[in-house]
Amino acid sequence: MQKNPENFTDSADPESASERESTVDINTDENVAGTNHMHGETLEPDDVQERFSAELQEQKDKYLRLFAEFDNFKRRTARERLELSQTAGKEIISSLLDVLDDCDRAEKQLQQSPDTDGIREGVLLVFNKLRSILQSKGLRPMVSINTEFDVEKHEAISEIPAPTPKQVGKVIDEVTRGYYLNDKLIRFAKVVVGK
Hints:
Strand 4 (179-181) and strand 5 (184-187) form a beta hairpin. The strands form two sheets. The protein has a three-stranded antiparallel beta sheet with strand order 1-4-5. Helix 3 (90-112) packs antiparallel against helix 4 (116-136). The protein contains four helices and six strands, in the order ααααββββββ. The protein has helices at 14-23, 45-87, 90-112, 116-136; strands spanning 139-141, 154-160, 171-176, 179-181, 184-187, 189-194.
């Protein structure tokens, strides 16, 4: 008969088993409740109370500092958000001031000059300047005429009979142009659809 080494106990030597049990100290971790720790120091109940009070005070101080830091962070981000919302359009408005100056000049010319061809050319220059500034800021007009009606991009104002059978369900006319800003739709196109 063979003995299994894992289950083997030395029953012939009871003293060695009791010695092994007495050398094991169950209070070797300082996180375990008790007064005997790895360092071998023995604390009196008053010392334990003082130590816990000091640790508790230290944790309270850490908590208060973190709470104050978080409160300051909330105030700072709220203030920055408010400043950002107040000045968000500053860059675009500043770039449009040149167009506004051109509009003022065109208005003066309209009042003083009978030359309609020159006025028309000046007004077209102002419009093209406005369009180019807005395009440089990411504004892009939507192409709607002769495309399929899409409820995600178009708002149907009315339906009219389609001039040709190919234009049924397509946009016939555009009342108000739709626009994208950096590939995000910011205004739906108001359109007339063929039926």
